[in-house]
Amino acid sequence: MVIGMNSSAYTRPLVVRNQTMAAFKRVGIVARRGSPSIVDTVVSLVDFLVARGIDPLLEDDTAPLLDGAGRRIARTAMGEHCDLVIVVGGDGSLLGVARDLAASQVAVIGINRGGLGFLADISPEQIESRLAPVLEGNYVVDDRFLLQASGHRDGVVLGGSPALNDVVVHPGTMSRMMEFDLKIDGQFVYSQRSDGLIVASPTGSTAYALSAGGPIMHPHLDAIVIVPMFPHTLTSRPLVVRGTSTIEVVIGRTSSPNPQFSCDSQVDVSVRAGDSVRISKYPHPLRLIYPTDHSFYEACRSKLDWASRLGGTLADQSGG
Description:
By secondary structure, the protein is an alpha/beta fold. It is built from 7 helices and 21 strands. It is elongated and about 60 Å long. It starts with a strand and ends with a helix.
């Protein structure tokens, strides 16, 4: 049984369908480097896959963790040669994979070796218990839309990138403010003086936007949230708009020498006064998958420490 999204639009409400699925046969592995615990998890994962008759493909930057063992593959080729990519690391690692592989529509699942783990849901201790059913074809398909950001100057595209979490327009320097105009679908919204602006997808609503006072959005919403960063006004609040909206931020005066916009805090593009940053929905969703027991609300409870109280939760006390 596979629980998935309506095939006609990945932003529509989640539906349940029964479908015969073959087990994943071609599995790629991408891992964050620089931690002994990551190496241990990758070794355990490879042993687990080999024991199930799966010969994993190791991303070029991941293969050195195993001293060259295993077959290597470029990340950009994984969408063509793999039907599942397992990311070992934190949510940051999964963000990079999302930008690189969303267009290929390859299934992606995360093993958490980072911090919160909103996207990477499986712990290293659960590889056998929770990953085995996924490999057998029992999983939740959780399509997440990305944003696409691009910078423009006098009709020339300066650069850009997809972003799974957010696009942040900022001065590029601490303790500096900037001015900008916000337009949505060609309509002027406001001029603002602040530390910048966060434009986040529902997936990114639990990341930087949440820290800036934005709302938590269910990941299946077809909406985008716009969150000002320390605005120089008492009336500026987060704004939620349609997911099909085109958002434009026109850069105004700033005392910073290097204003820029960042995609997932991993890709930076420099801009200057008079330039515009255009943000809209990326045409390809990330095909994120989870074990069938995954719950967004349980993730919020555990990651954000919801409903914690002395003596446990109300459900614990009532025996529920």
